[in-house]
Each structure stands twice: as C-alpha cells, then as structure tokens.
Write a structure and sequence with these properties.
alpha/beta, Rossmann fold, 39% helix
Length: 303
Amino acid sequence: MSIRAALMNFVIRRTVKPQLPDKAADVKAFREQMAGASNLMPKAPAGIAFEACQVNQVSCEWVSPEQANTSSVLLYFHGGGYVMGDAVGHRNLSWRLARASGMRVLMVNYRLAPETPFPGALEDATAVFEWLLSQGYAADKIVIGGDSAGGGLALATLLNLKNLGSDLPAAAILISPWVDLTLSGKSYIGNKAADPMLTRSALAAWAECYLSGREATAPLASPLFADLNDLPPMLVHVGSTEILNSDSESLVDKVIELGGSAALKVWPKMVHVFHLFAGRIPEADQAINELGDYCRANMENPS
C-alpha cells in the first residue's frame, strides 16, 4: 500500500465516514455535499472531449479521447448508492478509462431514487444500450461497466438484456459492485471497522430508497440472487477491507461455479472505488490501466 493511498484512507475515515450515520438518510443534503467534493478532482487534460446528449430521454455524456476507436463503446454507470452521483462527478474516472481502453465512454445519468425508485435506473440503462444497437454499434464492440451501485446496475442490465433475448456486450468491468441489497455478506460485519468509508447503516438507508418496498432479493435489484448463467466475461475489482468485499467475491465465485468467465482482483486495503482518485494514488492509476487492457483485449478477441 502506497503512502499516498494510506493518507487518502486516513482523510476519508476522518471526514466522510463519521458523517454517514447522520446524513446518509438525508439524500438531498448528502448529494450537495458529495457534488462539492467532486469539484476537487483533477481536471481532464487537453485532447479529451465531453459532450452532453439525450438518449431516449436519458441524460448521458460522451467522453472521447483523441484517436479513440469510434466503432467501440464503454457503456458506464456511475456509483452513488442509487441516490446520488452523475457523469460530471465521475469525469476523473471516465476520461482515464477512455484513454486506457482507447474507447469512447458513454456515461449514463440514470434516474435516481427516491424520486425514481427501482426499476427506473434499470429501464434507463437498458434503453441506452438498445439505443447503441440502433445506432449501428455491434454488441460485441460494447463493454459495459460501473462502480458501486453502478456496478450492480451494469450486472442487472446484462441480466435484463439476457431475459429480453438481446445480444449481449463483449465484456463487463465492475468496480466494487453492490450486488446484494440484503447486505448479507460476511464482510458487512467482518470489515465494519476496517472500511474507511462505508457503513452498513448508510447502505441500508440507500437500499430502502431504491427498493421503495420491493423485496431486496429481487434478482434485477440484487443480481447476486439472479441466474448468472450465460453472461459475458467480467473483471471485478474490490478493496480487501471494504464492507462490500463479499459482494464481489460471491459474485465471481457463483459465475465460475456456473462455468462462466470471471476474474477477481482484490486490492489490499484500498478504499471503496479508489479508482476515483487516479492521478493522486498510484494504485488507482494501475487499476485503471488494468481495466483498460481488459477492454482492449475483449475488443480484439470478442467472446
């Protein structure tokens, strides 16, 4: 673990985690606070273009590096517990993924809870993928990805597309995906003290907003409980001390047990979605390059 990563963990533990018990349920206030924090992220360099667009009434943002492969797309869903976040707040991650993969990235501002509970986000995600197909993008030239709740949404979108009989993307990249809204994994208790950012109570509050009375085991809300057969290959990143660690481990184990292709990279002591801090901690830069290489490999050798 680098010194910079250790310092980042210290700062987050002292600033973010203490506020979660009181503020997680106040979604509006927490959104405003997190939006302000995103302004502190490094700016994108010259040669990266950001273009807002509307896709089937869903707000999106194209992120395009110079000399990107225009025939391939990384369709990406931001995290934020299904209650906050947007493409702008994820720009430090999106442009780096675009550059590392050599692909254009389409960031999706899916509708958020509690204003729009499940399955609103899933409907938006599915509509954007179907729009990409209608625009002439081949499914095997699309990689789907997301972090935290966005990682869970990416997996749920794959399952929904499979249920609809659609062609599926070539691969998936999932960063600390939240795939179990029952919060039943062993790490929710085992990593309670070790996780420098998240708390189980905060996730429970956000899950309640998103589910709005639906069962937490609903397969398209908690895809860990879905039929995980016949999915494209996936690469999953997670920190060893996250309370969400068991979500990733259980997901990968289940996919492999069913004969699918899934790889898990556990990063020692890394904070939840540490990739957002690329440019500041070396582990984040390394992780993004690894995800980019995975995208490139699956464009060269689609499944």
